[in-house]
Specification:
two-stranded antiparallel ribbon, Muramoyl-pentapeptide Carboxypeptidase, domain 2, 6 strands, alpha+beta, 40% helix, 2 domains
């Protein structure tokens, strides 16, 4: 038989540890602590029994049991920051680019060859006997006339559009040279007096017809009279002439600006861009458009 050489206190500590383990098992099995220790360890040692059955021993056993049984680790709940997706930084919206201002200086208002030339009682043609170099017949439009080439082509387009809309018209007169204008003006003065004639007929050298850009039109029996505005043709050109580069040069209520009575039959070609600009901006006269002085009378 092998004799242990361990010191007595070491031997007792080992027995004590075994006793505590036994106590735990016995508690789970329903035995008393002292009884289980006596059965398993085979000893009636009062010290061991007292230790096992004491509250401290039971607490130690319970503590050992608690340590032996792993406690589930709670799953951490996501934080508010994790639960809420990070909102993307909004990209700045593109800045709207303003449309370039219409350039009213692109063409001259003084040069008689310019499509934008302004002729009125304060602004005679220079020279007074000016004659366009590019006059052509306005073919395909009833009445017959000559106009500057670009204006003639635009008039043909306006006529075709009006005809398709059952609003056809005829031309009364287009280009008139200074001599013809002198003849007409003298006749109106003789008939109505100069003051009255100056309200509806231009003096020679002051007429838009001499530029080759103006035209008088008629429909049916209404010729050179306000009744033209009430015809299909009159209504059509009032609404659509700008689409072809023309304006009604002497609108109603503008005699103090233009110097002439309302003439719904008198169209003036200014080009598609300028006509569209005047239409879009609601500007009725060239004097207002170009900030020119009103011309109610000859100076």
């Amino acid at each position: 038989m092998r004799v242990s050489r361990e010191p007595v206190y070491v031997h007792r500590r080992r027995r004590l540890g075994a006793a505590l383990l036994v106590a735990v098992v016995g508690t789970l099995a329903g035995f008393g602590s002292a009884e289980m220790a006596s059965r398993v360890l085979g000893t009636d040692d009062p010290a061991v029994a007292a230790l096992v059955s004491s509250p401290a021993g039971e607490a130690t056993a319970a503590s050992s049991t608690a340590e032996a049984t792993p406690t589930p680790t709670p799953t951490p709940s996501p934080s508010a920051d994790a639960a809420s997706p990070v909102a993307p930084t909004p990209e700045p919206s593109p800045t709207a680019t303003a449309a370039p201002a219409f350039d009213l200086t692109a063409l001259s208002v003084d040069d008689p060859d310019s499509l934008w030339v302004v002729v009125n009682k304060r602004r005679p043609l220079d020279p007074l006997d000016y004659a366009p170099a590019d006059l052509v017949d306005v073919s395909g439009v009833p009445g017959g006339a000559t106009m500057r080439e670009e204006a003639a082509a635009a008039m043909q387009g306006l006529y075709r559009a009006a005809e398709e809309a059952d609003a056809a018209f005829s031309i009364t007169t287009g280009y008139r040279d200074r001599g013809l204008q002198q003849y007409l003006y003298n006749g109106y003065v003789a008939e109505s007096g100069q003051e009255a004639a100056d309200r509806f007929s231009a003096r020679p050298g002051y007429s838009e017809h001499q530029t080759g850009l103006a035209v008088d039109i008629r429909a049916g029996a209404c010729e050179l009279e306000p009744c033209f505005a009430d015809t299909a043709a009159g209504r059509y050109v009032a609404e659509h002439a700008w689409e072809h580069g023309f304006i009604v040069r002497y609108p109603a209520g503008a005699e103090d600006v233009t110097g002439y009575i309302y003439e719904p039959w008198h169209l003036r070609y200014v080009g598609a861009r300028l006509a569209a600009h005047m239409h879009d901006e609601g500007i009725a006269t060239l004097e207002e458009l170009f900030s020119l002085k009103a011309a109610p009378e000859y100076r």
